[in-house]
Amino acid sequence: MSQRTSHQPTVHLISLGCPRTLVDSEVYLGRLKDAGMAIVDKVEGADVAVINTCSFIQESIQESIDTVLDAIELKKQGKLKAVVVAGCLVQRFKEGLVKELPEVDGFVGVDGFGDIDAIVRSALNGEHHSLIRRRPQLPHRGQPSRVALTPSHYAYLKVSEGCLKGCRFCVIPKIKGPLASRSIDELVEEARRLIEERGVKELIVVGQDTSDYGVDLYGRPRIADLLADLGKLAGLRWIRLLYCHPSGITPQIIEAIRDIPTVCKYLDTAIEHADDDVLARMNRGITSARLRERVETLRREIPGIALRTAVIVGFPGETEQAFETLLNFIQEMRFDRLGAFQYSNEESSAAFRYPDQVEETVKQRRYDRLMQTQQRLAEEINRQWLGRSCEVMIDEPAPDDSTVFLGRTWADCPEVDGLVYVNSATPLVPGQIVPVTITDTYEYDLVAESRRTFIPHSAFRIPHST
Ligand code: SF4
């Protein structure tokens, strides 16, 4: 974190929720730093705590509120001067939240990119100041500076905000509004700066629905074009595409993943369910036959592609039969990575007032069965890596063994997928890509031996100067 002078206010930012919020937090920190504030990595003792919140589902709302209450408690103890709350919780609940939390010194919605420093300064001057626009001005524009909240060798690139889809369980379009894309030029410039200024080697492309990227700006989806331009940037080793709606997986996207060398043969595409009645009730705009065809086409066109997906169990009206259909589909499709969620009945979502809500105990039982099934599949899929030679990007040293390093293959996204435990006699550094051989497998993780030959120093024969 930055060197500080005595009068410089100190700010600690807590970023909750998803990678899209993390990018906002990095932009907020860049703005605060450019405004002369010092960024500190501990909340205790900071002048201001900024909490960038999430409100996607009940669980994340609770986590956000608990984090705000913890900060308020520190303020009461005199370990903090002010608390500023930002992000999706503020945007979703607006004045209601302001009334509920009078101890908070400032509120800003999901678009505080140009205002966060003024809000923090007001908070420090004891003035309560809030800025919650009904229609958030998204996404951030231009080339704002970003303070890294990820290890320096990988970064998220947020290509758009908002969404055009209308999934009936989702409140994001109500929080973030309709799709708003950044231009290809802006994004390529941002990527170039991340490579040059941070030494980024892996770029993770995110949005609410990346398959629609550019529709608002260019009148048609242009994610494949963006990937092509990012693929020309020197210094990038891996480009990874997340949050691609299955109905938007076009031949152009498939070709981009297949043909651009630095684009990982990896795709994150949430199916959410596989029963046609439930898919229709969710308004997913796709059928299970089409989902199957998309998966089969991806695997035919890009042999060995790693597919990550997400599913929801317990959507209103989900019968036992519909759940079995989902379970069978998961077993048939054998996704490499899968995240499952129990349906959260979110006020202001279209499904909130659906009559046939599923009981919590039934949701839990279905969730457990699905995760057990996926764990077994993940173990079988991982076993196929045994003996394979591949490249691993090192993220960090293992905490308790100096000859072990934690990394990921091209088939693993940071923070959500598996890890590779790399045994190496040679010290390895974060961001290094090393050739390995997989020597053991677990249900989600792998063990590998570095194939970087260890050349003992004494082997170097310094030619005698003549
Ligand atoms: S695609 Fe559906 S789930 Fe994803 S952000 Fe849009 S509305 Fe929400």
Explain the layout of strands and helices.
Blueprint: E1 10-15, H1 19-34, E2 38-39, E3 48-53, H2 58-76, E4 82-87, H3 88-100, E5 106-108, H4 116-124, E6 129-131, E7 154-158, E8 160-161, H5 172-176, E9 180-181, H6 184-198, E10 202-206, H7 215-218, H8 223-230, E11 238-241, H9 251-259, E12 263-268, H10 276-281, H11 288-301, E13 306-313, H12 320-333, E14 337-342, H13 360-383, E15 389-397, E16 404-408, E17 420-423, E18 433-441, E19 446-450
Parallel strand pairs: 1-2, 1-3, 3-4, 4-5, 5-6, 7-10, 10-11, 11-12, 12-13, 13-14, 17-19
Antiparallel strand pairs: 8-9, 15-16, 15-18, 16-17, 18-19
Helix pairs in contact: 6-8, 8-9, 12-13
The structure holds iron/sulfur cluster.
- Total separate domains: 3
Instruction: Count helical runs.
Output: 13
Shape type: globular
Which range best describes the helical content: under 10%, 10-25%, 25-40%, 40-55%, 55-70% or over 70%? 25-40%
Ligands bound to this protein structure: iron/sulfur cluster
| Distance between the amino and carboxyl termini | 50 Å
Write up this protein:
- The chain has 466 residues and is an alpha/beta fold.
- The protein folds into three domains: 10-131, Rossmann fold, CATH 3.40.50.12160; 154-383, tm_1862 like domain (pyruvate-formate lyase- activating enzyme); 389-459, OB fold (Dihydrolipoamide Acetyltransferase, E2P).
- It is built from 13 helices and 19 strands.
- It has helices spanning 19-34, 58-76, 88-100, 116-124, 172-176, 184-198, 215-218, 223-230, 251-259, 276-281, 288-301, 320-333, 360-383, and strands at residues 10-15, 38-39, 48-53, 82-87, 106-108, 129-131, 154-158, 160-161, 180-181, 202-206, 238-241, 263-268, 306-313, 337-342, 389-397, 404-408, 420-423, 433-441, 446-450.
- Strand 5 (106-108), helix 4 and strand 6 (129-131) form a beta-alpha-beta unit.
- The site of iron/sulfur cluster (SF4) has 9 residues, from helix 5.
